[in-house]
Amino acid sequence: MNFLGPDGQSATTTTTAQPAAGGADDLVRDGTDQGFMTDVIEPSKQVPVLVDFWAPWCGPCRQLGPVIEKAVRAANGAVRLVKINIDENPGIAGQLRIQSIPAVIAFQNGQPVDGFMGALPESQIRDFIKRLSGDRDEEAVADLLARAEAALAQGDTGGAAQDFAAALQADPDNMAAVAGLARVQLAEGEIDEAKAILESVPEPKKTDPAIAGVRAAMELSGETQGAGDAGALQKQVAASPTAENRYELSRALIASGDLQGAADQLLDSVAADRDWNEQAARKLLLKVFDAAGPASDIAKAGRRRLSSILFS
Description:
Elements: E1 28-30, H1 36-41, E2 49-54, H2 59-74, E3 80-85, H3 91-95, E4 103-108, E5 111-117, H4 122-133, H5 138-153, H6 157-170, H7 175-187, H8 191-199, H9 209-221, H10 230-239, H11 243-255, H12 259-272, H13 280-292, H14 297-310
Parallel strand pairs: 1-3, 2-3
Antiparallel strand pairs: 2-4, 4-5
Helix pairs in contact: 2-4, 5-6, 5-7, 6-7, 7-8, 7-9, 9-13, 10-11, 11-12, 12-13, 12-14, 13-14
C-alpha cells in the first residue's frame, strides 16, 4: 500500500529523520501524515506498530489513550504505538477509510494486518498485543496440557480434547497439543481421525518427539490384535512366569493403555529368556519406549534396566 501525504506527495519525500528505534521514547510517539513512512511503515518491518487514530474532542479516545499506552509499554518493545490526531492529520485516516474513532490499526511488514475500534478494556488490548506479537502465555499453555494429560489418563477423552484444543488455539505450533488430540482419537478407537491429524502436521514438524510418539503408539496398537484378558493372563504369569506368558500379558496391558505395566512385563520377559521368539519381547519393548516418548520415565528407566539385563 502506497501511503500519501495530505498534499498528494509520497510520504517518503516529506519525512524527516527520526531518532533510532529501540529506546523507551520510541515505544509511544505522536505521528503525522508526513512522518508516516518513518514512524510506522519502516519500523513495522521490525516489530508490529499500532496506529491510534484519535481526536481531542473524542471522549472514548481520551479513555483509550492512557490504557493503550500502558499496555504497549508493558509489552517491553514487542510492539510500538503511534498516535495520530486526525483533525491535524486527516490524510492517512482518509486512505484507510477510518470512519469512526478511536480506531487502532496494526501494521506489520509495511501493511495493515489487524485492528479494532472503540475503547477496549486493558485486558483485551493486552490480548490483542499478544496475538499480534506472537507472544504466548507459556504457563497457561503448560497448565492446559497438564490438565489434558490428566484427563486422558482418567479416561475423560472429552475433557482432554477440550484442553488440548485450547492449548493449540493459544499456541498453534505446539506439537504436544496436536499429538494430544491424535491420542484422544486413538483412545476413542478413531484410528482414521488420528491418522488425519498426523497427516496435517507440516513436514518439518513430523519428526517432533510428540508426533513421533503418537505414530509409534498407532503402530503399537497393531501389536494388540487378539490380546487376551489382562486379569486371566496375570494369574497365568503368577503360576508360570515364563518369557512367553509375560509377553502375552504385556500385549493385554498395552491394549488397556498401561504402558508402564507392559514395559515391566517385557523387561521381565527379556530377563527370563532374551532370545525367546527371535527377541520378540525386546523388539516390542522398544516400540513401547517410542510410544511413551523418549523423555518419559517409562523410556528412561526402562532403557537403563534393559541395558543392565543385556550386558550383565
